[in-house]
Amino acid sequence: MTRVIEVPTHFDDRSFDTFAGGFGEWPPGEKVLVDARGTQWASPYGLIGILTAGQALAEAKREKPLLTVPTSDEVKRYWARAGFFHEAAELFELHGKVPRGGATGPSDVLLDVTPVRATEDVHGVVHKISEGASRILHGELGLEMKATLRFSMALSEACQNIVEHAGTGGWVAVQAYTFRRRLGRRVVVIAVSDAGVGFRRSLESAHAKRFGERWGDGAALEAALIQNVSRFRDPGRGQGLAFIKRFLDQWEGKISIRSGTARLSIVPPWDEDVPMNEHLPHFPGAQVQIIIPAQEAKTR
Amino acid sequence: MIQTIRIGLLLREAVAAPYRNLVTRPTGAAVRNRIEATLADSNCLTALLDFSDIELVDLSCADEVVAKLLLTVRTAYFVVLQGLREDHHEAIDHVLTHHRLAVASVPPGSRAPRLLGWVPADAREAFTCISEGGPLDVSGLCHNLDWTFSRGREALDDLAVHRLVQPVGQLYYPIQTA
Lengths: 300, 178
Fold this sequence. Notes:
The structure holds two protein chains of two kinds. Helix content of chain A is 39%, strand content 24%. By secondary structure, chain A is α/β, with parallel strands linked by helices. Chain A has two domains: 1-98, STAS domain (Transcription Regulator spoIIAA, 2-Layer Sandwich); 108-300, 2-Layer Sandwich (Heat Shock Protein 90), CATH 3.30.565. Chain B has helices at residues 7-15, 25-40, 59-73, 86-99, 121-133, 138-145, 149-161, and strands at 2-6, 21-22, 46-50, 56-57, 78-82, 102-106, 114-117, 165-168, 171-174.
């Protein structure tokens, strides 16, 4: 028997829970088919979410899942250009015609879907992003020049969380696009996802006790993002997320972290999300999304 | 005597690649170990860490390289940073403030250091006074800043604890940077 999981038509952080809910109990007992035929658009968060599902299934030693590629040529080309199929081919049995190679020339894809498994990968990511980030952040979004370095720092810290806490590898992708429905402005989005142990298990031994019965995915996210705690006793730890929050506040940016059955967000005024979502369908590991919007004239 | 340590060179040795970004904790720890090894073989009094080849310093590396070095060598050396750009300051200032540490940084093209990190406000003012005006004793500082003697002593004690001035007899000297 095969469990068919439909990728939402518009696949981003908002529709992610529908995708996650398709898996039921983790890991699902049946063979999985991820059906993206009807997908018209996917954010970097959505793309690496699909890969995370594939990785989690592989690590649970489940049969290699199937992935039917989008029917739309335009969507397929975009996914290919973002490097998605290159990574997906390792984790899924791909069905449908996949375009070869990527596009050349300037692109809104600031960083292809890139695996992060070790410290060297973080160096590679930061090295690769620096030039394009300046063009988009300063040139298009109207952020000050030093924003590029803050952005690279945020990316570095987010990727390091995979290496240091997940206990397995993950992915990162960065893209610029226009947030028509929610904001009506250009944004840059960093998406980072892993199929690892998640925040609750990572922090459990050091912090569960003081939360008592409240301890769970939501409390673990609160401990990490609001209280800046770390599983390490080193007092220098836990500053990365604090720093990211500080500059996102300045730029009216948004960070949300989903882990297990909860998602916690620092919500800027332009967004209608709720800060804490609990009792969501379980999904392995942790998914981080950072959104930096174009600055309005008054804040430039 | 001053020992200048080029961080860019240590970074390239640590990652065995031509990257100019000081990122990740393991990289920061490897760079710090090399700094400590260099200092162990040196009879210098001041370690001048030169960041001029560095493009980016992230929080993890600021913590591993600068904060942990200050915690380790606190009683042995004066540590001064040079070649930092404005955006480097932000990461280093953030982690040092978190640890309640401070370090002197010499801006490019200047010999007057500025403080990064946390010291009490009076200590910061005293640091500027001594850096710009040269060595002072407690009475001299209090005269210049119109402070009481105890206030001046406390400010200078704070700077001495953080290895931000060099006490010699009754005088407090600016850290040697050149």
